[in-house]
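mind reviewing these tokens:
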Amino acid sequence: MREFDPFDGAVLIDKPAGPTSHDVVDALRRAFRIEKAGHCGTLDPNATGLLLIVLGRGTKLSEKLMSDDKVYEGSIKFGEATDSFDAQGELVSSLPVLPMTVEELNAAAAGFQGDQMQTPPMVSAVKIKGVPLYKLARKGIEVERKARLIHVYSFRFSSYSEPLGRFRVACTKGTYVRALADELGRKMGCGAHLATLRRVISGKFDVQDAIPFEDALKLSRADFQQRIIPFLQLAQTSPSAG
């Protein structure tokens, strides 16, 4: 068995709004001359926060790390529903927002806790026969999607100032938080969409320990190497690794 390279492992990146998760991987690979790299859990272009980038032999752990639970923070705008369930979509309905309190929102959000079947939005990266759903959606094509079992551990609002509510949700991998926002809007009778989203925790990793993407690109190769979590340490953080 060959020895591990210093670039076998993972690095925690704080992704800004704008680039895709793939864009981040590609830029780091080019900047630091890394042959093999990937990410654990896609963030939509306008979502921010923790993106775990696996490097070299660290990519062998990507599936295990991707299966970790996630925690997100963000805001939901009530009164407007979109076709993508987020702020980047086309407006499909606009309704008056009835007076709501944080307590009422939390009472409604509590109904989402536990196991549930969730259907991926048409505007998503899920593939049907090799074609991403969002590409079909752009052509006005809607296809049947298989519902997936997800689990929401907690879903709570910390504040509400019409029309925006700020929330925090802990859930299993593969959960579409924007689908939760859309469904909550229906439940409240006014429609809603996900306005902002930030991933703050993935498994045992916290965004507070991540380096902003722009800052990472300014590092020398040696300094970037210092940010890498070594493969063996990374394997120990993954409960199912071994």
Summary: The helical segments are 21-31, 62-66, 102-109, 133-138, 177-187, 213-217, 221-226, 231-237.
